[in-house]
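Example with several molecule types.
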Amino acid sequence: MSPHIIPKRTYFLIFAALIGLTALTTYAATVDLGRLNTVIALLIAACKGSLVALFFMHLRWSGRLTQIVAVAALFWLAILLALTLSDYRTRRWTPAAEGWATSSNQFNR
Amino acid sequence: MSEGRAAALGEQFEDLEQQHEASSLGMWVFLATEIMFFGGLFAGYTVYRGLYLPGFEAGSHLLNVKLGAFNTAVLLCSSLTMALAVRAAMLGRRRELVTFLILTILLGLTFVGVKMAFEWHHDYEEHLVPGIDFVSEGPNGRAIELFFVFYFFMTGVHALHMVIGIAILAVLTWQASQGRFGPERYNPVEMAGLYWHFVDVIWIFLFPLLYLIGAHH
Amino acid sequence: MSTTAVEATTGVNYLNAKYGIRSWLFTTDHKRIALLYLVSITFFFLIGGAAAVLMRLHLIEPQGALLEPATYNKMFSMHGIIMVFFFLIPSIPAVMGNFLVPMMVGARDLAFPRVNLLSWYIYILGGLFTLYAILAGGVDTGWTFYTPLSTTYANGQVMAAALGIFITGFSSILTGLNFVVTIHKMRAPGLTWFRLPLFIWAMYATSIIQILGTPVVAIAIVLVGLERLLHVGIFDPALGGDPILFQHLFWFYSHPAVYIMILPSMGVVSELITCFSKKRIFGYSFIAFSSVAIAVISFLVWGHHMFVSGQSVYAGLVFSALSFAVAIPSAIKVFNWTATLYKGSVSYQAPMLYALGFIGLFTMGGLTGLFLASLATDIHLHDTYFVIAHFHYIMVGGALMGYLGGLHFWWPKMTGRLYPDGWARFSALVIFIGFNLTFFPQFMLGYLGMPRRYAVYPPEFQVLNVMSSAGASILGVGYLIPLVYFIWSMRYGPVAGPNPWGAKGLEWETPSPPPTENFEELPIVEEEAYAYGVKEARVV
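Resulting structure tokens for the full complex:
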């Protein structure tokens, strides 16, 4: 069992990139881009998360099985989000759903 | 098999490599559970953000982006020191390991401290804590309250994970100072590192979702 | 390893290696932990069963024979909570899985023995909270804890019961985690994935659900507790929340949880069918992959519990179609089991009777599930006794029959003793008859429109209800008979020997009961699973 040693330089480079992305996302949020704001914020977060996972958590050098576990967890999260939203995104398509939505959205007005 | 190796090996395992692979896989599977645990919260957040976007943006606007960004940097920094601690453990550098572990703990305490002393305390004084004395008038009042329910619950569960992590690291620091770790036994440090980085990743997503969605107003 | 050799020759095994209550409460031996679970879940089964007895007695008369309506509500809630979370979910995984997974993969223990013991303590802690909830006044929300009933309107010990379920969830997660790591990393040399017993594949698929589903219901229950405690409007429509979100989060776990109950039973049945047909399993890889397929698809169908809840009908369409898809891998299993029986030398010993009963009852339960997965018929059948009958055919006719079959099959391995086969066959028959008499009338009741969870009903339903209650008393007797002869057999049963059934599999190659370390020397596997009758043909 020989541990995989990564040069310190790599860690510092990744750290610099993470700080840079944090600054970028904080700045990008101050510009009004409409719906793109959320997309950009989440993309940057995904990049940062991937950097941490791949380098700090050594996922890049881990075995295939570990990588599958990580991907599977994200896949199941995607199932949860996608099928839950499949309900909320289509409720207004029918008149019956509209009636429900207006009564519960009264706090918006 | 040297004596150190024999002591580090659980009796259910054949060799150290099997033990290392098992504990690493076990930790990752545990993190998968954690992802789904936070995933339920993210799902709830997403649903209500979709239903009440203006209210969520108004709620987000009430948070302090600068403190949030500062804490993000603190946490990223602690991830760096944690990664360096794991590296030191693998190389068997005892003093370096202890130093980096202590640094990680201090940065973690800074995060939790800023969270509690500045942010949550400020929110409390502004009457923004749902269930205690939430006061928000106006058309979006209820939606803002829902935002703060998720804000406190998500950051609260995250902070709880931080506190648990700090406790684990404290034990590891003591063990490291006793010389319990070396190139043949660094599993506990590595596993704690995985956990710590995971908590960092959660925050990486919480920061934009909670602090930044209202920033452009 | 030398100690094990000594143990084997002197008759020392995991049961008599150490004595005293401490040697049990602080054990890390997976076999002893399995027995701890066996005792605990039997205790909870008796409590849940008692609640069922009271309910069926009450329903003998249209106006109710026994209980106040409010008490009736608490009875069905406690029955559901205890049977689902404290009996069925831990039943096969925590008892037989704990006992068998390390032995079947040829390991000395699970990957994390101390975590395994911890999971039992967590289970007990959760159980204590739930028992407190019963004794301190009960819960009347049903096992589903639907909002806003559970958050706003329900009186009683909702918090204690919710906390109990939350805590017990972690026990389930840790068991699943332990199994996944053990199956991946602790297999004996030569034991490739496609040489594994199908029980292991089933446990693996179950573990996936436990690991990825349980945390979501945990968070849903915490949110209920939070709302109940602080009156924040997470699920309360009056405060801007959406009660249906709770149903999404709840069923994201609780539908796959049905497969936590049934998949292990399917694994047990695969073992039983081959052993008592003395034949290789038909379509090994189909059964193996259908387990994994069921685990994955089970996460895509939860919305079929919510067709009439106010969920979007378009989402309902998607969930309906996906629900039909889960029938495919289930049917594949049934076809392969029946094909295995074909031209086998079938013997009808007690475990086999349970297995055959499982196939028939599970098929009934599965097919009626299709009625409920169709949007249009579900509007009529939703929340009627049809649903009750359907899921009891799955959870009792399926999961519980598999559990009892497995218990009869591996009992000689666990205790080293045989039980009286005649009584065992008799009880299998009694349970089969009692079960059908209890639940088949409920299909008819539901189809005629009798809603579930009501303490009273119109007089025209009385005949069917009395039939159901009569069946329940037969069923109760059927469950008590094994309880008696199992306890009897521990002291007076004939000594079983290492392999009383002539079965294949690593667990049958050690003495009964096995030594603490399972194997004198770790086995090396050179043949596929279920190599019944192929040894003669093979040139060694």
